[in-house]
Amino acid sequence: MKALDLAQLQIWLGGLFWALGRVAGLCLVAPVFSAKTVPAPIRVGLVVVLTLVLAPLAQARIDPMTAEGVATMVSQVLIGAAIGFTLKLVFEAVSFGGELVAQSMSLGFAEVANPQEGASSTVLSQFYLLLVTLLFLVMNGHLRLIALLADSFHSLPPGTVAINANGLHAVAAFGTELFGGAVRVALPAMTSLLVVNIGFAAISRAAPSMNLFAVGFPITVSLGFIALWLALRSLPGAFEALQGQAWSLMRELIRS
What we know:
The protein is mainly alpha-helical. It has nine helices and two strands; from the N terminus they run αααββαααααα.
């Protein structure tokens, strides 16, 4: 009876370890969950709560103190990090799109400290990132992500083969969407500003004596804000399309 109790205790402790590894890997990389603007105690508390909730799904007869247990723990962190990294690429694509719009508006110099990345970025980039973060929360994206993580324990239980080389290659290939998605986000505003710049080029040919640096900059910024306001209507659709591709890839990862 005592041996049975020790075996059951080992399974329970293992479930906590495997759930902790997968949840920690996700929360270290995934947007919103890894936000440095959120106090560390809250993030740690979220990891603990999710671990306790998902631990019953992660039970496996593997001793955490053996080499097999260490390898299983590494695979759990890898699974969570791969899921979170896939979604993070979507947010980075939107942020990069904001950078492109800022450069088109001649506002590339308007940078502020970005606590999330630990560096400076343009104001428009952070504005776009803030908008899509709010959209993600309003659309219950965080709940979908937690549900996907729970489903991964059914399709990829601890002790089985983790994400294979094809899955990791698919995640790396999805990185190309960082540039394609950025262009998709920034294209409406950039197209409008391109027309403005072509107009300035025609004016410079017609009136070479005009100082376009003194006249063109305020006009470009003013018309850029109008183009930005009109282009924001297409942002939810572009973000939803990028999210759809990311969710499809994440579902494929947990089935690999």
